[in-house]
Every structure is written in C-alpha cells, then in structure tokens.
Design a protein that fits this description.
By secondary structure, the chain is of the alpha+beta class. The protein has three domains: 78 residues, Rossmann fold; 105 residues, 2-Layer Sandwich (D-amino Acid Aminotransferase, Chain A, domain 1), CATH 3.30.470; 65 residues, ATP-grasp fold, A domain (Dna Ligase, domain 1, 2-Layer Sandwich). It contains eight helices and 15 strands. The strands form four sheets. A five-stranded antiparallel β-sheet has the order 13-10-9-14-15. A four-stranded parallel β-sheet has the order 2-1-3-4, sandwiched between helices. A four-stranded antiparallel β-sheet has the order 5-8-6-7, sandwiched between helices. A hairpin with a 2-residue loop joins β11 and β12. The protein is globular and about 65 Å long. The protein starts with a strand and ends with a helix.
Length: 290
C-alpha cells in the first residue's frame, strides 16, 4: 500500500469547503487502496517517508510549502506541485515570458523596470496597450496587487507602490469580460473546466469592495460545453509551464481566447470539479501509480 502525504496548514482548514475537499481527496485515495496522512508544517520531517506528496496550502518560494516541495523532490518523491512550477507561477514576469516563448496567446503585455519608468515611458505604455490597462506586481496571487489604471498618472502612482516590493511590474492590455474560464491541466492533459463569474462590483475574481471581500461565483462546465479553443489553449499553457497541476485562467477577447495567468496547484474546494468526479482519482493516480 502506497502512502500519500497531503501537506496542509491551518489556513487550509479555515473553511468547511476546504475541509470537505480534503476529505474527498482522502476518501478517493483510500478507495484506490492507498493510505493518506495529513502533514502539517510541524511534521515536515515525515515527507521522505511518503510515496507521493500533494500540497494543499498556498505555494510560494518564500514559505514552508516550497521547502516541502523541495524535500519531496530531493527524496525523488512525486510532488504536486514541484519546485520549478512554484517558482515560475509565483513570478508573473517568468510565467508570461515562458508563455510568450511557447507562442501561447496572452493579452498584450510589457515588463517595466523601475529604472525605466518615467512620465514619458508611462505615456508610451498607454500608446502601446490602450486604456484602461492592468498593472500587476509580479508576485501577486488571489488578485492582490492587481489594479486597473486609466491614465499615465495612475500608472505611475500604482507603480510607485509596487516598486517597493519588486524591481519590475507587469503592464497588460485590459480584456473586459463577465467571467474567466479556469482550465485545469494535469501532466499536460485536460483535467476539468469551470467558469469564474466576476462580481459586478469589480473586474477581478476576488476583491475588497467597501471593506468587504467579494468572491467570484463558480460554475463547473461539462467537457462537451467547453469551447475547443479554450480547452486547447489551457492545455498548451499548462505544458508551457511544466508537468504539474495547473489552473489556467482564460478570457475570451475580441481576438479570441487568451491566457490571463497560470496558477500552480489550483484550488478545488469551490466546486470547480462538480462536473468532473474523477479529478482526485486522476491526481492520486499521477502521484502514486505512474
């Protein structure tokens, strides 16, 4: 019997939805004949004793999840997500660069360094990308440090804040939509698809509005209702990053679908997998049976 380690932290268990998702994962692995152990950061030393590791906590090169991933990789234990995927997806400059190198369609995008940004350069960026445009700090996650600006002065103001955290910012064409596609990719193959319905008060799938956090709605979409172009683009984007588990966010713009970003080790507790009952079976199979 193989043993699956599921790496969690207190925040992973902060909601009933997250807890239920973990239980579904455990039950699936046990039905497949495997043992499951939940591993908290205090028990990280147990990782080399596992046959596979599934990280279910926020991945970032600056926190303990990355240490857990490196430990598993060093011990040659299959891990989702692997250290390289975490590094790439945690740095938007790196992520978009890889997508560009592989010819994956993304909104028009510019990388802007702190030393080059000045009022004249800000005006050039608007000439290139149009108005409004999106400004991102490269290490952003959960829609944090992502803002829409409408003029060069706004760009300079947001950039000054973001440059306190990074030497670079990402300036990107704004693609208007009422929802984002989320395409799940595992090992370079299509896994699931859903729609994230953007709250009417914002342009992001998660935002703080008048002191309250608003979240997107989630609609799991059966495979025969997913446009072929969206599905194919999601798979291409996942393969451009690596061989792990990715959630590819896609908008359908005037020029066709384009990738907004690729998330390593995406959430599954919101109902993303409702139309895909075998998602956890596929993940466990990838970690323990391939």
């Amino acid at each position: 019997m193989s043993r699956l380690g599921v790496f969690v932290d207190r925040k992973t268990l902060s909601s009933a939805e997250q807890l239920n998702a973990l239980i579904r994962c455990r039950d699936t692995a046990e039905e497949m004949g495997h043992g499951v152990e939940f591993i908290f950061p205090v028990d990280i030393r147990k990782i080399p004793q596992m046959d596979g590791l599934f990280i279910r906590a926020r991945t970032d090169p600056m926190n303990v999840t990355y240490v857990a991933s490196r430990m598993a990789s060093f011990a040659q234990i299959p891990v989702i997500d692997d250290p390289m995927s975490i590094q790439i997806c945690s740095d938007k400059v790196n992520m978009y660069s890889r997508l560009m190198q592989h010819g994956v369609m993304i909104p028009r995008t510019l990388f802007v360094s702190q030393r080059d940004l000045c009022p004249a350069r800000a005006r050039e960026i608007f000439d290139d990308l149009g108005s409004p445009l999106i400004v991102k700090e490269p290490s952003t996650s959960f829609s944090l440090r992502v803002e829409k600006v409408t003029d060069p002065a706004g760009l300079l103001q947001v950039a000054r804040r973001y440059f306190k955290m990074s030497d670079w910012i990402v300036a990107q064409e704004f693609v208007e939509s009422t929802y984002d596609w989320r395409v799940g990719v595992l090992g370079g193959e299509f896994l699931y698809a859903c729609k994230y319905i953007i709250p009417s008060q914002t342009f992001k799938i998660q935002d703080s509005v008048n002191g309250h956090v608003v979240y997107c709605g989630v609609q799991s979409v059966p495979p025969d209702m997913v446009p072929a172009a969206v599905r194919e683009l999601g798979v291409r984007a996942g393969r451009a990053i690596g061989n792990g588990l990715y959630g590819v966010d896609i908008k359908e713009g005037p020029s066709g679908p384009c990738v907004i970003e690729v998330n390593d080790n995406p959430s599954l507790e919101g109902g993303e997998d409702t139309a895909y009952p075998d998602v956890y079976r596929e993940i466990v199979h990838t970690l323990l049976e391939t």
